[in-house]
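During the no-cost extension, the postdoctoral fellow (Dr. R.K.) reprocessed legacy sequence entries with the updated structure-token encoder. One reprocessed record is reproduced below for audit purposes.
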Amino acid sequence: MPGRRSRRHRGRRGPVSGPTPAAVRELAVRARQLADDLDAAYAAAAVAGGPTEDAAVGLVAAADQARLLAVTVEHAADRLVRVRVTAADPGACGVVEGVCPEHGATLSTSAGRSWCTAPGCGRTWGYDRLSTPCPDRVTHEVTDLAGATTRMCGAHARDAAQTIDGARVVPLADGPQMEDD
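Re-encoded structure tokens follow.
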């Protein structure tokens, strides 16, 4: 399927480290400032005219690229917020990739947006849910043949039951039951 990436059952996310969303947003501000500075440099060259303006024409494209860079960096900051919020929530599933809460591992993603590919679903997300730790509530405990246990949301638990040999899936007392339970 075009756009589909699968990293099923890589487990829960590790501790969150790296740059903060605020630090990344500051980089976006700096990129916007660079775009403004490049625009100003070109404007000064345009006033001079002639060969000076001709020589500086590349500054216009560079300013456009800096603006695009700022938007890309802002999107990265937004994703960091989602990752950190999920990591800080002890009730979140946190398996390293998101799923459709109803259909499981049926997501496709492109251009920073995701959608469920299950017929008739129609669910979409305005971010790359597939590459973001799952924010859905933990409802099940899954144990593999080696004895490793992971708490997961219902969608990840259903998928684990179908894809992990010998998986034992147990609903948590305070969570909803899987349809097969």
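The beta strands are 107-110, 113-116, 124-125, 140-143, 149-152, 168-171. The chain has two domains: 21-88, 107-171. The remaining legacy entries will be reprocessed before the final report is submitted.
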